[in-house]
Amino acid sequence: MARTTTKDAQDLFHSLRSAYASTPTNLKIIDLYVMFAVFTALIQVAYMAIVGSFPFNSFLSGVLSCIGTAVLAVCLRIQVNKENKEFKDLPPERAFADFVLCNLVLHLVIMNFLG
Amino acid sequence: MAKKLSIFIAISLVLSLCDAFNLDNPSSRRILVLLDDFAIKSSHSLFFNSLQSRGFDLDFKLADDPKNALQRYGQYLYDGLILFSPSVQRFGGSIDAAAILDFIDSGHDLILAADTSASDLIREIATECGVDYDEDQSSMVIDHTSYAVSETEGDHTLIAADDFIKSEVILGSKKIEAPVLFQGIGHSLNPANSLVLKVLSASPAAYSANPNSKLAQPPSLTGSSISLVSVLQARNNARVMISGSLSMFSNRFFRSSAQKAGSSTKHQKSGNEQFFTELSKWIFHERGHLKAVNVRHHKSGEVEEPGMYRINDDLEYSVEIFEWSGTSWEPYVANDVQVQFYMMSPYVLKTLSTDGKGLYSTAFKVPDVYGVFQFKVEYQRLGYTTLSLSKQIPVRPFRHNEYERFITAAFPYYGASFSM
C-alpha cells in the first residue's frame, strides 16, 4: 500500500510539472513574482520571531505590503489567463493597469503606516 | 462704651494667645512644672535656673492644685511639661493621664521623674510612653560594683553610672567625664519599640530589688536592660524624657563629688548637671530638630518645575535642610541624605550632595519605566527628628513623534515594502 501512495505522489508531481511547462511565459513571470512576495513576507515573520515585535506597526506594514501585492498579482494572473472564460473580454493591458493602480493605493497606505 | 471696651480686651487677649505658638520657633517657651510640694522648687533650683537662663518661662504649681489646666478653650497654655511629682495619685484641675497623653500627641515635650514612691498614675503615663517601671513598689536599683563611694557604707542604692548612649546630638559634643549619680527605681524598655532609647543604662551588675529585705526570688530586672534615664521621640517628633530618680535633678547631686567604686579617679563634680543641661536642650528641641524646605525638581537645563516627565529625561532634585540651634535655623550638614525615585519600590536611590549651606541636590536620569513616581526623602537618624518628604510626579512614555525617525530594528520592513 505504501509503495502505491508514494508512486501516486510521484506520478502526481510529474504530471503537474509537465502540465505547468505548457503555461505561457507571462503567467510564469507572475507566478515567480507571487512566490517572491510570499517569501519576503516569510523572511519578515522569521525576523520578528527572532528580534521581537518592537516597531509592530513597521512589521505589520511590511508583511501587509508583501501579502497585498501577492494577492493583487494573483488577481492579475486570473484576469490575464487566456484559458479563463470569465475574463474573455477584458484586455490584459486594462488588467495590468488595475494591478498597478491598486498597488499604488496599497503602498500609499503602507508608507503611512510604516512609521 | 463698656461693651466695646470689653470686646476690644477680649480680642487682644485672643490675639496674644495666638501669638504664643510660633511656627518658626520650635523650641518650647512656657513650661508647666508640677511638684509634690514647693520644697522641690528650692532643692532643685540649679536645674530650674539652668532652664530659665535659656529663656524658658517656668510655671510652678502643685500637682493637685484644682486650678491646673493644660489647655483652655482648645488652645494649649504651655509648650512643655515637667512632672516632678512622683507620688501624686490624682492631678488637680483638668489634668489627668489622658490629657497629658493628648498633650504629647499634639507635639509638646515632657520630662517625667519617678521615684521609689511612684504612684500608679505616674507609672501609667510612663507605660503609655513605652517605658515599664519595676512593678515592685518598694524596689530600687542596687549595684554592688558601680555604686558611688561615700564616707558611710550605704546599701549601694546610690549608683554612679556612666553608660551613656553614643549620640552627640542627644548628649552634646563635649564628653561627660564624671559619672552621673542616681538613686531611685529602674525601668525597662520593650525591645520591639523602636522609638524609645536608653540614654543612661545601668551597669551589667545592677539589679532592681528592695534594699531592706532579703531577696526571695531572682530579681526581674537585671543588668544593662535596666534603664535609668530613657527618652522617647514620638512619630510627631514630640520628645519625652523619663527618669527613675527625682533626686538626680537635685542641687545636692549636682554639686556633690562622684567616685565610682573600683575606680581611683574622684571627680570634683558629678556629671549630673552637664548631663541634664544637655539632655534638656535636646528634649526642648534646641538641638537635633530638622526642617526641610524648598523641595525643587526640574529638567536639566530648565528652571521651572514641569508637571510631568518623560522616560529617559535628565532631571535635577534639590532640597534645603536646616537645624534649629536654639536661636536660629542653621544649615544642616550631613553626607547621608538620600532621595528615592519611588514607584512601589525605589527605581533610583541617590545620595544628595550638599554645598555646606543646607542645600542638598543631585541629578539623575529618569528610568525607562512609565507611571506615577514619587520623590521620597526618608531621613531617620538617632536623635534627629524624622524627615519624611514625598512629592508625586507622573512619567510618560515617548510620544509617537519622539522616537528616532528611522528605527534601526525596522530596516528589514522598510526594505521589504520598498522592494514590492
TrEMBL record, chain A:
The pathway it acts in is: Protein modification; protein glycosylation
| KW Ligase (keyword) present | no
Q: Does the keyword Membrane apply?
A: yes
- Specify the domain of life of the species encoding this protein: Eukaryota
Question: Which segments cross the bilayer?
Answer: 32-50, 56-76, 96-114
Query: Which keywords annotate this record?
Result: Apoptosis, Endoplasmic reticulum, Membrane, Transmembrane, Transmembrane helix
Give a GO biological-process term: protein N-linked glycosylation
Main location per the UniProt record:
endoplasmic reticulum
Q: Which GO terms describe its cellular component?
A: oligosaccharyltransferase complex
Q: How does it sit in the membrane?
A: Multi-pass membrane protein
Q: Where in the cell is it found?
A: Endoplasmic reticulum membrane
> What task does this protein carry out?
Subunit of the oligosaccharyl transferase (OST) complex that catalyzes the initial transfer of a defined glycan (Glc(3)Man(9)GlcNAc(2) in eukaryotes) from the lipid carrier dolichol-pyrophosphate to an asparagine residue within an Asn-X-Ser/Thr consensus motif in nascent polypeptide chains, the first step in protein N-glycosylation. N-glycosylation occurs cotranslationally and the complex associates with the Sec61 complex at the channel-forming translocon complex that mediates protein translocation across the endoplasmic reticulum (ER). All subunits are required for a maximal enzyme activity.
- Describe its partners and assembly state: Component of the oligosaccharyltransferase (OST) complex.
Its family remark reads:
Belongs to the DAD/OST2 family.
State what protein this is by name. Dolichyl-diphosphooligosaccharide--protein glycosyltransferase subunit DAD1
Origin species: Dillenia turbinata
From TrEMBL, chain B:
Describe the location of the OST48 N-terminal domain by residue ranges.
30-283
Q: Which controlled-vocabulary keywords does the entry list?
A: Endoplasmic reticulum, Membrane, Signal, Transmembrane, Transmembrane helix
Name the InterPro entries for this protein.
DDOST_48_kDa_subunit, OST48_MD, OST48_N
Q: Which GO terms describe its cellular component?
A: oligosaccharyltransferase complex
Tell where it localizes: Endoplasmic reticulum membrane; Membrane
User: How does the entry describe its membrane topology?
Assistant: Single-pass type I membrane protein
Question: Residues in domain OST48 middle?
Answer: 297-420
User: Which BP terms in the Gene Ontology apply to this protein?
Assistant: protein N-linked glycosylation via asparagine
Q: Does the keyword Glycosyltransferase apply?
A: no
Pfam families (alphabetical): OST48_MD, OST48_N
Record's family? Belongs to the DDOST 48 kDa subunit family.
Q: What does this protein do?
A: Subunit of the oligosaccharyl transferase (OST) complex that catalyzes the initial transfer of a defined glycan (Glc(3)Man(9)GlcNAc(2) in eukaryotes) from the lipid carrier dolichol-pyrophosphate to an asparagine residue within an Asn-X-Ser/Thr consensus motif in nascent polypeptide chains, the first step in protein N-glycosylation. N-glycosylation occurs cotranslationally and the complex associates with the Sec61 complex at the channel-forming translocon complex that mediates protein translocation across the endoplasmic reticulum (ER).
Summarize subunit and interaction data from the UniProt record for this chain.
Component of the oligosaccharyltransferase (OST) complex.
Task: Tell me what this protein is called.
Answer: Dolichyl-diphosphooligosaccharide--protein glycosyltransferase 48 kDa subunit
What organism is the protein native to? Dillenia turbinata
